[in-house]
Amino acid sequence: MQLTFTEMHAPTVGLAIQVDRQLYTEQSDFQRIDVFECEEFGRFLTLDGYMMLTERDEFIYHEMMVHVPLAVLGETVRKVLVIGGGDGGCVRELCRYPHIEHIDLVEIDERVVAVCREYLPTVACSLDDPRVHILYQDGLKYIRRIEDEYDLIIIDSTDPFGPGEGLFTMEFYGNCYKALRAHGVLVNQHESPFYKGDALACQRAHRNIVHSFELSRLFQAHIPTYPSGHWLFGFSSRGVHPVRDLKADDWNARGIETRYYNTNLHKGAFYLPNYVQRLLEKVEE
Ligand code: SAM
């Protein structure tokens, strides 16, 4: 019998992956957690039936979430907050920078961390770095009491429903603004512009962010296992610009080996298709 994982990306369109083995399944206090194994993508994690990451293409997402802000902020990044991200992928990329002194990982579901440690060790491999402090809390509540604390905040959340819903609100982004230091940057996973449901979620998030930050730009990457493959990320700050303030020579001098990110692609990622620009302009005024 052939087992197939299917995730619908639109009412009549979906992703189907022939599965060799289901390695794990659990209903945690927050969501259904599954780990599968397949020929094309290796092992992959789903939450409530939605694709979170695969061994084969997770490098694209995690490199873009981390190296884009680090190539702009450089050595000024000492203290980082990651909200969500219990798989450890963003933390792994952050730990490649010796100058980063402290990483708080605020993940609501400790079962996600435990499952990724066991079944996705290449992703969760840096969670025991002494600079990493895991707090099992709701990021929406955690951020309310933080002020002028972080140089970089990364929102690596699930989609805007279930436990992740609050991480796309004006209240949350306003509190992230307050929690950042003056030169700080917020990077968030910003959904996709293609299918109707994702495009609406993208517009709502953008509207809430532009009302909270002086500068907000979106950048893009191509992630095969995410809806449409065209994925967006947000870069927001009080004034730091993601392309004008890119320190390409400094970043390249670090000699960090990547498989997707480079400082030329960094610039290109911020030049969006016309239909995406129009989608965003609708909610910017
Ligand atoms: N890369 C994935 C994506 O783009 O969909 C996200 C991966 S990561 C597994 C998402 C994490 O966000 C999950 O572990 C989930 O438990 C966590 N999460 C969801 N809502 C949260 C909240 N309010 N506070 C903290 N963590 C949350």
Automatic annotation (TrEMBL):
What the entry lists under CDD domains is as follows: AdoMet_MTases
Write out the GO cellular component annotations.
cytosol
Q: What is its EC number?
A: 2.5.1.16
**Pathway(s) annotated for this protein in UniProt:** Amine and polyamine biosynthesis; spermidine biosynthesis; spermidine from putrescine: step 1/1
What InterPro entries does this protein map onto?
Answer: PABS, PABS_CS, SAM-dependent_MTases_sf, Spermi_synthase, Spermidine_synt_N, Spermidine_synt_N_sf
Query: Which terms does the UniProt entry file under GO BP?
Result: spermidine biosynthetic process
Q: One GO molecular-function annotation for this sequence?
A: spermidine synthase activity
Reaction catalyzed: S-adenosyl 3-(methylsulfanyl)propylamine + putrescine = S-methyl-5'-thioadenosine + spermidine + H(+)
> Where along the chain is S-methyl-5'-thioadenosine bound?
31, 107, 138-139, 163
One Pfam family named in its UniProt record = Spermine_synt_N
Keyword tags: Polyamine biosynthesis, Spermidine biosynthesis, Transferase
Quote the catalytic residue positions.
Answer: 156 (proton acceptor)
Highest taxon above the source species: Bacteria
Annotated PABS domain residues: 2-238
**For binding spermidine, which residues are annotated in this chain's numbering?**
62, 87, 156-159
Q: Which HAMAP family does the entry link to? A: Spermidine_synth
Please state which protein family the record places this protein in: Belongs to the spermidine/spermine synthase family.
What binding partners and quaternary form does the record give? Homodimer or homotetramer.
**Function according to Swiss-Prot or TrEMBL:** Catalyzes the irreversible transfer of a propylamine group from the amino donor S-adenosylmethioninamine (decarboxy-AdoMet) to putrescine (1,4-diaminobutane) to yield spermidine.
Name this polypeptide is given: Polyamine aminopropyltransferase
Source species = Agathobaculum faecis
> Its gene?
speE
